[in-house]
């Protein structure tokens, strides 16, 4: 998508793209967070070139260095002005001397993969519940394992919003529940619900690529679920979980609340700390949201229907 393409969907965020040598990634990442980037992800700037290097250990090969020679650091901002201002503030810094600003580009609402292309190692949700890429052996302590590979759709378990939803599910007894994962991305939350004994799992997303990824990932994990576009969601559920973002969550408030059955739970993520009050107000006509968890400036908000 280009900034001046009149047919492109409206930009939801603006992404600042930087090329950064390995030794500078941490400092640049910290500076971007201090400049209030919504998310910072790191990918191999040399991908698909002869300089490309594996980041994760392949069986039988020595463990690689913990980063790429050059990384592409991608930072999302709400506005183009914020992204350009962050670039302008970084450029004169001593630690930025051998880094390069590649540009600023708009990112559409549905371009969720952009948010997920950070490093992906086995990730613990609880000491015995792990998300493990398919090429890794599960850690010995893992009793419940979700197998996922990055890149198909949002949701590798590395983002705080996903982790908080998974932690909530790990702390509740889901046996026999009817579960709706609204905005399923990779299907990670729906798959977790299936592995934790949910009786019926429905996963929906506006992005057909996410629906396809969810079907693929569910099959790879031996989980039975129904995945489709949002109209697939029908009736009341014991758990409605939605990890989207504050703006769509506010628009979806009546619809999501209508899907929470008697005694059912609503679990919402994708909310920045400063947005908690707006969300509480948007849901107040139907359900009383409470903050249930926080991580890295993000909040998990939940409610239960009587
Ligand atoms: C942040 S990802 C979450 C993926 C996964 N559930 C997780 O927790 O990691 C949000 C997903 O919501 C989808 N989405 C955004 N707006 C939506 C809407 N209005 N209705 C349904 N899905 C939506 C996006 O396509 C994306 O796959």
UniProtKB/TrEMBL annotation:
Sites where the protein binds S-adenosyl-L-methionine: 162, 183, 205, 243
The protein's Enzyme Commission number: 2.1.1.-
Subcellular location: Cytoplasm
Molecular function GO labels: protein-lysine N-methyltransferase activity
Membrane-spanning residues: none
GO biological process: methylation
Record keyword Transmembrane helix present: no
Entry keyword set: Cytoplasm, Methyltransferase, Ribonucleoprotein, Ribosomal protein, S-adenosyl-L-methionine, Transferase
NCBIfam families: prmA
Record's protein name: Ribosomal protein L11 methyltransferase
UniProt organism field: Tepidimonas thermarum
């Amino acid at each position: 998508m280009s900034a001046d393409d009149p047919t492109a969907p409206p930009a939801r965020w603006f992404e600042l793209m930087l090329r950064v040598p390995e030794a500078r990634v941490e400092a640049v990442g910290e500076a971007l967070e201090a400049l209030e980037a919504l998310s910072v992800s790191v990918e191999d700037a040399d991908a698909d070139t002869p300089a490309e290097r594996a980041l994760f250990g392949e069986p039988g090969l020595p463990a690689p260095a913990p980063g790429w020679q050059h990384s592409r650091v991608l930072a999302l901002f709400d506005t183009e002005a914020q992204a350009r201002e962050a670039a302008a503030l970084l450029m004169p810094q001593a630690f930025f001397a051998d880094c390069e600003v590649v540009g600023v580009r708009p990112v559409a609402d549905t371009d969720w993969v952009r948010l997920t292309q950070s490093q992906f190692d086995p990730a613990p949700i609880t000491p015995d519940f792990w998300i493990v890429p398919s090429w890794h052996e599960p850690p010995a302590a893992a009793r419940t394992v979700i197998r996922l590979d990055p890149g198909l759709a949002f949701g590798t378990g590395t983002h705080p919003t996903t982790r908080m939803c998974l932690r909530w599910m790990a702390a509740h007894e889901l046996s026999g529940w009817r579960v709706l994962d609204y905005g399923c991305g990779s299907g990670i939350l729906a798959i977790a619900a299936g592995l934790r004994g949910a009786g019926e799992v429905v996963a929906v997303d506006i992005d057909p690529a996410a629906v396809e990824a969810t079907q693929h990932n569910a099959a790879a994990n031996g989980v039975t679920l129904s995945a489709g576009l949002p109209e697939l969601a029908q009736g009341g559920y014991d758990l409605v979980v939605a990890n989207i973002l504050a703006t769509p969550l506010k628009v979806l408030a009546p619809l999501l609340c209508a899907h929470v059955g008697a005694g059912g739970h609503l679990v919402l993520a994708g909310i920045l700390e400063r947005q908690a009050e707006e969300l509480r107000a948007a849901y107040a006509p139907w359900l009383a949201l409470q903050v249930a968890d926080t991580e890295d400036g993000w909040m998990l908000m939940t409610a239960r229907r009587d």
